[in-house]
Amino acid sequence: MLERVRIKGVIDFYRAAPVGETFFLLSAGALAASLQYRNLISATVILAGCAYSLYVIRKQFKLKRRLEESVIEHGYDERVFYKTLSNWCDRQTARVVAENRGFLDRFDSLCESNRAIMDLPYLPHL
Fold first, then answer.
1. Cα gap 96→90, rounded to integer Å
2. This prediction's pTM
């Protein structure tokens, strides 16, 4: 059971900031390869990409923490989750929080009723 909880935590960690996490993982691999071949220009560019992706990851986890605190304190409030609908990454973060707190069906219905304001509304969830 504990192993299952750990795996779910790792999966939720990735799902909360999928774009930043993917970019960071790819950049880290490219950085290792460029340092091996002593190409400092590409290493600098890749480091800048890593820094940006860490910024994006931090932003998504701050959003996740705020949403979790709001749900714990006030319960599910559509006004709070509505603010996350326009951006795909923010929707993924909100979806993780809603799923973990038992409000996934309400969040999905909120998404369905507000597709007009969404960027990339048909991009699948992780």
1. 10
2. 0.67
Q: Which long-range CB contacts under 8 A does 101-104 form with residues at least 24 apart?
A: 101/68, 101/71, 101/76, 103/71, 103/76
Closest CA to 96 of 1, 8, 27, 4: 8
DSSP letter assigned to residue 119? S
Distances in Å between the Cα of 40 and the Cα atoms of 27, 33, 36, 44, 110 are 14, 11, 10, 6, 48
CB atoms within 10 A of CB 109: 11
Mark out the alpha helices in the chain (DSSP H runs).
Answer: 2-16, 18-36, 40-74, 78-82, 88-101, 104-113
- Greatest alpha-carbon span in the chain: 54
pLDDT, tens digit (0-9, with 9 covering 90-100), for 95-114: 999 998 999 999 999 988 88
Q: Which of 61, 60, 23 is nearest to 45 (CA)?
A: 23
